[in-house]
Design goal:
single chain; mainly alpha; Arc Repressor Mutant, subunit A; Tetracycline Repressor, domain 2
């Protein structure tokens, strides 16, 4: 009986020659139901019983096709990732010409179509990525496969000092995160064309800052009035946002107690950054901090309480840092100012990596955490509107969409600094890559490189 069960179990796999037409339909129904439930309830809240009920089969029958919910997710993720890799293979030659920009623009649209098709998977992808899950190696493999192919393609082009490896991951960061914003209805109410066209213009200028203005005009985003954006958002930036500090929350505690609290917060942040909130236990935090359970519950009710405390601290630090971005003033002045700001930004992201992961994932679904996330996100966008809106341009560029793309780049690229044993970006390469993309793509500091007239579509 054991041997028969084993043979039958393997025959229900995706490439089985004996699964039959009916079995193939059932298997696909399980995948479709799972995708719908992940969208409705989220991966963590979806149960195997929910999936079986949706399909109309028993729990035992479902297990003959998939060993676990994680296995279902892995297959869906594998399919989505393979579709994106096929899009990468279809990317035509790039360059500062009209044809090069057409190829990039088309490719961004194709990528968006695939990510829309699997929108739920990409929204949930980061939430389930943990070294303890079978999805982790697959995600690393996808990023590695993409990075190898895209780096090869960019190496064939003249990027004028921009490292192809960093540029490849920067593009991935913007593409994935911007399309996540769209899927999650966080694209500021902008039409898809404005967002994707501005993304295309930004990437084109980051890679080829000498692209002529009339070539960029092929992506007509409907330019936002600069003065209107600047006045509107400078006023809103005057709003003072207060975040509870650790000193306020633990007022009257001794220096030794504050040191212990700091150890718990740092340990919790590290573990949650690696595993995510749901896969982290209080025991994991205590093991990392080398402290006992009694010590933890002396200061925090549970792991959510600890995360809320660290998120409040992180929000205050980030708002202070983001406000400094206005000093860059559209790229005018000391060029070292941007790199100094980026170094501090990366350090902040790395220190509060656990908090940023929960904000990015939208998990746990806690009002306090998501309220802090919204405030910080709005502060980013309003500040970027001011800086990007101060730049004079001779090509179409929607400022509010550009701010969204910039937030996506900063939000996601730091996460890719170490995505697998194959793809590693040092902080120095991160700063150089981010600075180049911001200076070229967003602040247009190399406008003098552009010719007055385009050399034409067939050049």
């Amino acid at each position: 009986m054991r041997e028969i069960a084993s043979v039958r179990r393997s025959s229900y796999g995706p490439s089985s020659p004996t699964i039959g037409e009916r079995g193939a339909r059932t298997r696909q129904a399980i995948l479709d139901a799972s995708l719908a439930l992940f969208a409705q309830k989220g991966f963590h809240a979806t149960l195997i019983d929910d999936i079986a009920t949706r399909v109309g089969i028993s729990r035992a029958a479902l297990y003959q096709y998939f060993a676990s919910k994680e296995e279902i997710f892995t297959e869906l993720a594998h399919t989505a990732g393979n579709d994106l890799i096929r899009v990468v293979r279809r990317l035509g030659p790039l360059g500062p010409t009209a044809q090069g920009f057409d190829n990039l623009h088309w490719w961004i649209g194709e990528w968006a179509w695939v990510q829309d098709k699997y929108a739920t998977m990409f929204v949930e992808w980061a939430k389930v990525d943990s070294p303890r899950t079978p999805m982790h190696s697959h995600i690393g493999d996808f990023v590695h496969s993409y990075a190898v192919r895209m780096t090869q393609r960019l190496t064939q082009a003249d990027l004028n000092g921009l490292a192809p490896e960093g540029a490849a991951l920067a593009i991935l960061a913007m593409m994935r995160r911007v399309n996540q914003y769209r899927a999650m209805r966080m694209a500021r109410g902008l039409p898809d064309e404005a967002v994707l066209d501005t993304l295309a213009v930004t990437v084109q200028l980051a890679l080829f800052p000498d692209t002529a203005a009339d070539v960029l005009a092929l992506a007509d985003t409907g330019e936002t009035t600069r003065r209107k954006v600047r006045v509107q958002h400078e006023r809103s930036l005057d709003t003072v946002v207060h975040f509870e500090s650790l000193e306020d929350r633990f007022s009257g505690r001794s220096e030794r107690a504050m040191s212990t609290i700091r150890r718990l917060l740092d340990a919790g942040g590290q573990v949650m950054a690696e595993r995510g909130f749901h896969a982290t236990s209080v025991e994991d935090i205590l093991k990392r901090a080398s402290l006992g359970r009694g010590t933890f519950y002396k200061y925090f009710d549970d792991k959510l309480d600890l995360l809320q405390a660290q998120a409040a601290e992180a929000a205050g630090a980030v708002v202070t840092l983001v406000d400094r971005f206005r000093e860059i003033d559209g790229g005018i002045g000391d060029p070292a100012a941007l790199r100094s700001w980026l170094s501090d930004f990366i350090a902040c992201r790395q220190r509060y990596a656990g908090v940023f992961r929960t904000w990015s994932d939208g998990e746990p679904r806690d009002d306090t955490l998501q309220g802090l996330s919204r405030q910080v996100g709005c502060r980013h966008l309003r500040t970027f509107d001011v800086v990007l809106g101060s730049v004079e341009r001779d090509y179409p560029f929607t400022v509010s969409a550009g701010s969204l793309v910039l937030m996506a780049l900063l939000d996601q690229l730091v996460n890719y600094s170490v995505v697998s044993k194959h793809v590693v970006l040092t902080n120095e390469v991160l700063v150089d890559t981010l600075a180049a993309f911001i200076e070229r793509g967003f602040l247009d500091t190399q406008a003098h490189l552009r010719p007055e007239r385009s050399v034409g579509r067939d050049a």
